[in-house]
Amino acid sequence: MKESKKLILEMLKDGRIDEDEALALLDAIEDSTEKAFDSFEDELSAILKSLSKTSKELSVKVKLYLENVDYEDLKEKFASGIEAVIKGIKDIRMNF
């Protein structure tokens, strides 16, 4: 954008455009920048809304999953796994 402004000022200085044309061009540059920024804000807002919705949905799914976990079964499987590891270590020690 800075280069565009310099070019417009150079054209004004060289007499290729008058002050009104220069002002119109500068306004057009500002308008396009504002529109681009507005568009960016709109896109960012849409992304944040989507992210918020997705995180809420994920939160509900995680809550439902955790409510349905059988912690006693999980505890038994974990204990069984630990016992298997300990037995494996003992077997290795016996072979040395």
Q: Would you kindly provide a written description of the structure presented here, covering whatever features stand out?
A:
- With 96 residues, the chain is mainly α.
- The chain is 90% helix and 0% strand.
- The protein is elongated.
- The model has no long low-confidence stretch (mean pLDDT 88).
Percent in helix = over 70%
Give the overall pLDDT as a whole number.
Answer: 88
The rough form would be described as elongated
User: How much strand content do the residues show?
Assistant: under 5%
Our Rg estimate from Cα atoms comes to 34 Å
State the secondary-structure class. mainly alpha
Largest sheet: none
**Helical run tally:** 3
What string gives the helices and strands in order?
A: HHH
Number of E-state strands: 0
Q: For the record, give the distance between the C-alpha atoms at the N and C termini, rounded to a whole number.
A: 76 Å
**Which stretches of 5+ consecutive residues score pLDDT under 50?**
none
SSE blueprint:
Blueprint: H1 2-13, H2 19-67, H3 71-95
Helix pairs in contact: 1-2
Give the tags.
96 residues, elongated, mainly alpha
Provide a short characterization of the protein structure:
By secondary structure, this protein is mainly alpha-helical. The chain has helices spanning 2-13, 19-67, 71-95.
